[in-house]
Design brief:
single chain; alpha/beta; 5-stranded parallel sheet
Length: 148
């Protein structure tokens, strides 16, 4: 097991995005975490694919794309197209989680599964061998800057 550092773009100064990404490029961070929210699965909206495409062109780190959206499987090709190296979906948003994980891998990305705070970790028992990472949410998804 290793520790991966993946700072979140959600914490960036969006008026100064080039410099923020350059700071990440110069850092010891392993990946850049991008929280994509749809206003349906979570109550907020964040980045769309045009922003991810820009970030990918500027960022030297692999993009760690965390989809907090309904039906994330519909966007696997788009996440790959805009440079996603890692795609994490929510257990709670996937009716057929095994299929989604397989589709992410087939697209050439690492697959992650995220759990909301109320979701028992034991639910990962049948999928844990198939995923590359698990993201345990310490807060309810949908807003940056929540108290831990």
């Amino acid at each position: 097991m290793s520790v991966i550092i993946s700072p979140s773009l959600l914490s960036a100064d969006f008026g100064n995005l080039n410099n923020e990404i350059d700071m990440i490029n110069a850092s010891a961070a392993d990946w850049l975490h991008i929280d994509v929210m749809d206003g349906v699965f979570v109550p907020n909206i964040s980045f769309g694919f045009p922003v991810l495409e820009f970030v990918n062109r500027r960022c030297a780190k692999p993009l760690d794309v965390h989809l907090m959206i309904v039906e994330p499987q519909k966007f696997i090709p788009e996440v790959k197209r805009v440079g996603g190296a890692i795609m994490t979906v929510h257990y709670e948003a996937c009716t057929h989680l095994h299929r989604v994980v397989q589709q992410i891998h087939a697209a050439g990305m690492q697959a992650g599964v995220s759990l909301n705070p109320h979701t028992p970790v034991s639910l990962l028992e049948d999928i844990i061998e198939d995923v590359d990472l698990v993201l345990l949410m310490s807060v309810n998804p949908g807003f940056g800057g929540q108290k831990f």
